[in-house]
Design a protein that fits this description.
alpha/beta, Rossmann fold, 2 domains, 15 helices
């Protein structure tokens, strides 16, 4: 299947979740770049509160109100034949799990949850459906480093959303050390609160130690640190002073290097 056929068969609404849209827009741009590079028919959503922030504070009524509004908005695109792709894992987990209770509409929940994907999960689906070659899309000889430490988001792991990222990194030949810490300790807004600071940092120290150990030994390999969640990235950045990227950013940079095109041409095309 060529790009034109993919464009006709794979239609996506990239959901502008508030965490990505307002804090890490480069991750959303990277997702758009990757999907458009393989030919996906891509549209960007409005930036809507999905209820995650409210739910994390126990504001159930507010979370439900926002979920119903966002759910109705997303269902209109699903009915048009579009799948929903979400960058921030905690928001994807809302669509796949928490909306069952917040929407109070089992049919709508099932349809939304079955059409909501993590970006690299969706990329893997296209590759497998069409027997595409990862190596032809991503030439890792263009990567600054093949040595990586990857920490998935805890919410991402609850829905198995990190598995596609792991498979893609492995298939491309990256030398990856995976975090086995269940949570970075930031846990949404938890780690920002004074009363939970020590608990948050204790969990964080376990993660920091793993990163340091992955670079120890005779070779003292300096690894690129990747994390899928906003809170995880901020915890590592604040706790270690290390630059952290989303796997999407790494892969988008490889595409940019491989095809030597202007970054925004993929967004505007």
């Amino acid at each position: 299947m060529n790009k034109k056929e993919i464009y006709n068969n794979y239609k996506v609404l990239l959901f502008a979740d508030i965490y990505t849209n307002y804090n890490y827009p480069q991750r959303g741009l990277a997702a758009a770049k990757i999907l458009k590079a393989v030919g996906v028919n891509l549209q960007l959503s409005e930036a809507l509160p999905d209820g995650r922030a409210a739910l994390s504070q126990g504001m159930i009524a507010t979370a439900a109100k926002r979920a119903i509004k966002t759910g109705k908005y997303l269902m209109s695109f699903i009915e048009q034949g579009r799948d929903i792709v979400v960058v921030e894992p905690s928001v994807l987990a809302m669509f796949r799990r928490d909306y069952r209770h917040l929407l109070n509409d089992e049919d709508a929940f099932r349809k939304l949850s079955s059409h909501a994907f993590e970006p690299l999960e969706y990329l893997e689906k296209i590759i497998n459906d069409n027997n595409l070659s990862l190596a032809e899309i991503f030439d890792i000889s263009k990567a600054e480093s093949k040595d990586i430490f990857y920490h998935p988001h805890c919410q991402q792991k609850t829905i198995g959303g990190e598995q596609a990222t792991k498979r893609i990194l492995q298939a491309l030949g990256f030398n990856v050390v995976y975090s086995d810490v269940e949570c970075c300790g930031m846990a949404g807004s938890f780690g920002f609160k004074k009363e939970f600071y020590e608990v948050s940092m204790e969990a964080g120290r376990q993660l920091f130690k793993q990163i340091e150990q992955s670079e120890a030994g005779d070779n003292k390999t300096k690894r690129s640190v990747l994390a899928s969640g906003v809170s995880c990235s901020e915890q590592i950045d604040d706790g270690m002073g290390r630059s952290v990227r989303h796997p999407l950013e790494l892969l988008a940079e490889i595409i940019y290097s491989s095809f030597a095109v202007n970054f925004y041409s993929y967004i505007k095309a």
